[in-house]
């Protein structure tokens, strides 16, 4: 069995990817420092796959611990690097934390890969690198816009670091630019666990429906879009997880592989905030208490992916629509709140 290291593997996207990897015949070792996840997720993964992944609690920023880890696990074939901090607002308040946790730890990990001859690497990037697109849907050739937050900047810098490293070494890397991941595993055994007040739309919706929040604020209905609210490409986290399996397969086969490749991972379909609210009400039967408020500073008006490249070169395509994703998000929220 090929062994894959998943950093941040107890986090939201990482945990779903661990499940997908195990279900596709990979063995997995997870590194996580539990800074934004809980150890119970390991139990959730194990309940789904019936196979406990190996787990080491460590911080990727700790060079010594990282080195000892690679001494212990000699047979790693590929790395999927999720571990990072991801709160945009926090990154504005504390940019150094973001440059250390997202950029420095990538460098340490690449140094270990170089030392150990590990050549396959997948990086978690984001559609945030595109900023406000000039054309829609957006493909991978679109220009990178100046980042509006340190978080977004870390994704741009990390892609450049990986690209520079690939230029001078026998290293195969893929950067997956995620659009907006939503939903949870259909077992409701793993899902998203935001700390504090959710910044993202779907967790705020499910928490409002569950009575944890009083009211959802819809940030603006005066944008130049059909219903005036912003448009995003919401992708089911299970589809996103499967894209990683396709990407690691592609790297290991290294068939026609260019050294550094970038793929959009979205559905190709845009949905507005008000459409998401309506779809949630329809699939769950729960009426949402929401009100239109002012625009949120820094929001992109509309962005959705051209996924042709991932469809053709990874043989991957999103299977689930937004309604399936929203239903799974609600099932997970009910489970977390004991509402079932
Ligand atoms: P998450 O916070 O749920 O998962 C990240 C995991 O990494 C957590 O379990 C956390 O404890 C761990 N971690 C953080 N720093 C670490 C460190 N120094 N050492 C060890 N473990 C560490 O986030 P997520 O939503 O699963 O995102 C995963 C990746 O995808 C991140 O790189 C994020 O920037 C990227 N991404 C996320 C989104 C999104 O909307 N969720 C969109 C685009 C890109
Ligand atoms: C989606 C839409 C909001 C909350 C952020 C990061 C980005 C990326 C994904 C990682 C927007 C609206 C939201 C609410 C609302 N992460 N909204 N009320 O803005 O696409 O991107 O997450 O890389 O870097 O910036 O996602 O879920 O925050 O918002 O009306 O309470 O929902 O205005 O139009 P976004 P989001």
Description:
This is UDP-glucose 4-epimerase. InterPro entries: NAD(P)-bd_dom, NAD(P)-bd_dom_sf, UDP_G4E. One of its GO terms (biological process) is galactose metabolic process. It catalyses: UDP-alpha-D-glucose = UDP-alpha-D-galactose. Its EC number is 5.1.3.2. This protein is an alpha/beta fold and 340 residues long. The chain folds into 2 domains: 212 residues, Rossmann fold; 102 residues, Alpha-Beta Complex (UDP-galactose 4-epimerase, domain 1), CATH 3.90.25.10. 41% of the residues lie in helices and 17% in strands. The chain is built from 11 helices and 13 strands. It has a 7-stranded parallel β-sheet, sandwiched between helices. A two-stranded parallel sheet has the order 7-10. A two-stranded parallel ribbon has the order 8-13. Strand 2, helix 2 and strand 3 form a beta-alpha-beta unit. Helix 1 crosses helix 8 and helix 7 crosses helix 11. The longest helix has 22 residues. It is globular and about 55 Å long. The structure holds nicotinamide-adenine-dinucleotide and UDP-4-deoxy-4-formamido-beta-L-arabinopyranose (WQD). Nicotinamide-adenine-dinucleotide binds next to helix 1, strand 2, helix 5 and strand 5.
Brief descriptors of the model:
340 residues; alpha/beta; Rossmann fold; UDP-galactose 4-epimerase, domain 1; 2 domains; seven-stranded parallel beta sheet; two-stranded parallel ribbon; 11 helices; binds nicotinamide-adenine-dinucleotide; binds UDP-4-deoxy-4-formamido-beta-L-arabinopyranose; carbohydrate metabolism; NAD(P)-bd_dom; UDP-glucose 4-epimerase
